Amino acid sequence: MVAQSAISRREQTSRVITRCAQDLAIEHGFDGFTLDDLAERAGVSRRTLFNYFPGKEAAVLGVPAALDTDVLRTFVAGGTTDANGGRLLEDLAALVVSTYTREDPDRADWHRVHALFERNPRLIAVAKERFDALVSDVRVAAEEREGLPAGHPRARVAVAIIAGIFHDSLARFLADEDIDFPTDFLAGVDEATRLLR
C-alpha cells in the first residue's frame, strides 16, 4: 500500500512538472525559460526536477508512453488471427486505447501538447522518435503474437493501419468537442476491419 501511494505521488509530481514545462514552452518558447523558472512554476526544487527528468526537453515532453506489461502480455497471448486479420486489428486497437488512456488525459492535455508543437516545432522530431519507438514495440509484439518473422508485412501493415486511424481520430478529437477519442478511434478500427473483409 505504501509503495502504491509513493508511485502515485511520483506520477502526480511528474505530471505537474511536465504540464508546467509545457505551459512555459508555450508561453515563452522552449529556449525562453530556464530550469529555475520551471522549478518555481512547478513548486519543486531544481534538484527535484533532475530526480524526475534529465533535462528540459524530457520535462517538456514528459515520460514517454509505454506499453503496460499486463496488457502487452494479454495481447501477445491473443494468438493468431483469422485470414482477414480482424482480431489482430481489434486487439491492436485495445492495446492502443489502454496505452493512451492509462494516464487519463483530458482534452486540455491534448490541446496543450498540440499548442506546444505549434509554438515549438523542433520538438516534433523528438516526439516523432518517441512515437516511432512505441510503434516499433507494438509491431514487434504483433510479430511475436502472430508467430511472424521480423518485418513481416502482416504485422507491419496492421500497425500502420492502426497508426493512421490513431492520427485521424486524434485530429478529429482536437477539432470537435463532441468527439470522444477512444470511441472515435475504435469506430475507425471497426470500419477498417469491415473494409478489409
Automatic annotation (TrEMBL):
GO terms for molecular function: DNA-binding transcription factor activity; transcription cis-regulatory region binding. Gene3D superfamilies: Tetracycline Repressor, domain 2 (1.10.357.10). SUPFAM superfamilies: Homeodomain-like (SSF46689). Residues 11-71 form the HTH tetR-type domain. Keywords: DNA-binding, Transcription, Transcription regulation. Residues 34-53 bind DNA. Pfam families: TetR_N. InterPro entries: DNA-bd_HTH_TetR-type_CS, Homeodomain-like_sf, HTH-type_TetR-like_transc_reg, HTH_TetR. The keyword Ligase does not apply. This is TetR family transcriptional regulator. The lineage of its organism: Bacteria, Bacillati, Actinomycetota, Actinomycetes, Micrococcales.
